[in-house]
């Protein structure tokens, strides 16, 4: 009589680097947006610089630069971590902190405290 052999498929350990890169890049993009929003209120020169489109105003510059910061940071971090598995917990905590700071920077109550006279 022949035996039936059941084998479990092997679990493939995938690197967590791409996930870490995406999460941290999100935080970087958010904090850049918050920083530029606050800086826009603090300086008329920055306000004028960020006005890429006259109809949209400085929002056009803030969002374009924040998205560029996200894409560049993601590309660099992905390139560094694509085959590695950095510890996710500290990176996710850092990403959450950066997102929180970015959100804080976009609240009118916060950035209006820096309005240039």
Q: In a nutshell, what does this entry contain?
A:
This protein is 68% helix and 0% strand.
List the helices and strands and how they pair.
Elements: H1 17-42, H2 44-49, H3 58-81, H4 88-106, H5 108-111
Helix pairs in contact: 1-3, 1-4
Question: What's the count of strands?
Answer: 0
Point out poorly predicted stretches. Answer: none
Radius of gyration: 21 Å
* Gross morphology: elongated
The percent range for helix content is 55-70%
Structural class: mainly alpha
Q: What order do the SSEs take from the amino end to the carboxyl end, as H and E? A: HHHHH
Largest sheet: none
What's the overall average pLDDT, rounded?
Answer: 93
- For the record, the count of structural domains works out to 1
In whole angstroms, how far apart are the ends?
92 Å
Range of strand content: under 5%
* Count, helices: 5
